[in-house]
Amino acid sequence: MSAIRRDLFFSLIIACLCLVLAFLDLARIPPAPSGIRCRALVTGVDNSQVRTHLIVKTNVQLLRVRLLAGPHEGQELEVVNMLTGKMELDEFYQPGTTILVEYSAPGGQPVNAVARGAYRLGLQLFLVGLFALLLVAVAGVTGLKAGLSFIFAALVLWKLFFPLLLLGYPPLATGLGIVTLLTAVICFSVGGLTRRGLATFAGSLLGLLLTCGLAALFTHGFRLHGAVRPFAEMLLYSGYPHLNLTDIFVASVFIACSGAVMDLAMDIAATMDELKHRHPEIGLIEHMRSGLRVGRAVTGTMTTTLLLAYSGSHIAMFMVFLAKGLPPANLLNAPFVAAEVLNILVGSFGVIAVAPCTVVIAALLYRHGQPTAP
C-alpha cells in the first residue's frame, strides 16, 4: 500500500471515530431542564429593579425582545436577565443587542424567558470556518488532516476524557491514556504513517511522561490542590465530592503542554527527515548533531511561548498584586500563582526534553533506508 493510500485510510478511520464520538454518551448524565433557544433582539429594557453597588449590579434586569428565529419568530416577549453581582458572569444589555434567549412554550405561547448571554454562536461558527479555510489554504492536504485531528482532539476531551473523570476513573492513568491516544492520532495524521510520524510520536510521548512525573512530584512539593482551578469547588458541590482534584490538576499540566511538545517534536522530526533526504550519506553522529543544533534554536522560543500563553491569561491578577503594592514574594507564594509557575516550568521541562529525545529516535530510525521526503 502506497504512502498516500495509507494516509487516506488512516484519515478515514479518524473520521469514523469522530462520528462515533459525536454520539457517545459515557457519563449518561440527564440533561438539565431546558426549553427552546433562539436569537432575539432587545427592543427595550427596564432597569428599575437593578440594584447598583459601586460598579456591581445585582437583582433583575427586565428586557423586551423580538424573537429572530425559532418556531415563534417575530413575536415579542418579556425576558428576565438575572444579575448575580459577579462581573465575569453577568451581562447588562442595551436596546439593539442581539442575545440568546431560552424559553418554554407549554400552551403554544412563549413564556418564562431567560437571557443566556449576547449571541455569539454565529460569529464563532464564522471564525471556525475562517480557521479551516486558512488552514487548508496554507497547508493543503496536510491542513485537512490537521483540521481532522483538531476535531478529533476536541471530541476525545469532551466525549471521553471529561466523562471518564466524572465517572471516577483515576485522573493520572486516564490522562496518560488520553494524551497517548491524541499524540498518536495527531502525529501520524500530520506526519503520516512513516518514520517521521513515528519519531514525532515517540519523542512527544517521552517528553510528556517526564512532564507527568515532574508535575506529580512538584504538585505535592508545592502543597497545591486542584481547587486552585476555576469552578473546581463548584464541581464538588455539583454532586461529585469523590473527585480527586489534585490528580486532575496534575493531568491538566501535562495535557496543557502536549500541544507544544508535539509541535516541537514534529519540527525536529521533519528536520531530521529533510537532512537525510538532502544528505543520504550523513552519518549517525553527524545526523544527531545537526538535529540538536536545530533543536536548540526552536526550544528557546517554545519555552517563551508557554510563559506568554499562561501569563497572558492572568494579566488582571498580576495587575491586582501590582496595584496593591504587594511584594513579589507574596505574589509567587500564592497558591494560584504557584500553580501557574508549576505549569510553566514543568511544561518547559517537557518541551526541552522532547528535542534530544526526538533527535536520537529519528537518527536511529533513519540510520538505514530512505527518508520520508520524496
Automatic annotation (TrEMBL):
Pfam families linked to this entry: YibE_F
Keywords: Membrane, Transmembrane, Transmembrane helix
Membrane-traversing stretches: 121-141, 148-166, 172-193, 205-228, 248-270, 297-321, 341-366
Keyword match Secreted: no
Name of the molecule in the record: YibE/F family protein
High-level lineage: Bacteria, Pseudomonadati, Thermodesulfobacteriota, Desulfobulbia, Desulfobulbales
